[in-house]
Write a structure and sequence with these properties.
- The chain is mostly helical and about 120 residues long.
- The chain has two domains: about 45 residues; about 70 residues.
- It contains seven helices and no strands.
- It is rod-shaped, with a radius of gyration of 30 Å.
- The termini are far apart.
Length: about 120
């Protein structure tokens, strides 16, 4: 705004003004302001929005409290609560926190089932 006003003042008259800052400085500030504004807007558009810290804490708490649950089970439980996150997000969080993944299970054996189920 000030830069526009200074642009209206003729150069000969500007030379006689006693300013604290030069018009070039004010123009540079204006350019920097616009550059930062557009850089910030372009950064916000890219990528998926970050998950809340509470959700990350909840995922890690569930993983530690239920060591037999895998990434998919935790994702399913959160979906049941109405919390939508990607499975990959919980995987990365758990790996970074040092929570070991659950070994893959191909199927349950009859010996693993309780006696009341077997017969």
């Amino acid at each position: 705004m000030i830069a526009l006003l200074l642009g209206l003042v003729p150069k000969a008259r500007r030379a006689g003004l006693r300013l604290i800052v030069t018009p070039d400085t004010i123009l540079r500030w204006h350019r920097d302001l616009l550059r930062r504004r557009w850089a910030k807007k372009s950064r916000l558009i890219n990528g998926r929005p970050a998950a809340h810290r509470n959700i990350k804490t909840l995922v890690l708490h569930m993983a530690r409290q239920n060591p037999a649950w895998g990434y998919r089970r935790i994702h399913g439980e959160l979906a049941g609560l109405g919390i939508a996150i990607a499975i990959a997000a919980s995987t990365v969080w758990e790996k970074n926190a040092g929570v070991d993944p659950v070994p893959r299970q191909n199927g349950r054996m009859a010996v693993d089932l309780p006696a009341c189920v077997i017969g």
